[in-house]
Amino acid sequence: xxxxxxxxxxxxxxxxxxxxxxxxxxxxxxxxxxxxxxxxxxxxxxxxxxxxxxxxxxxxxxxxxxxxxxxxxxxxxxxxxxxxxxxxxxxxxxxxxxxxxxxx
Length: 104
Prior knowledge:
Number of helices: 2
Strand order of the largest sheet: 1-2
Strand content: 15-25%
Structural class: alpha+beta
Order of helices and strands: EEHHEE
Distance between the termini: 36 Å
Radius of gyration: 16 Å
Mean pLDDT: 75
């Protein structure tokens, strides 16, 4: 991690399916952040932004669960969309829905 983002620290937590982590590092600019994504992916590290308002990982499984548990779509409307509608630009951290007016 240090080679990707100098001064980086990794926070690791135990999750129900395995460990998860959050990488923090001194901010040196958006270009540096985005340049690190492919390097992290090559290392096997998934990149995801916790600051988005919709689901972008495990969408198919979530849609199947939602169909069984919330068939009328009453819970969390607008947070689960067709994964084909997400334009990722190579990283889920930069993913944005390709649906005009989505989330408004």
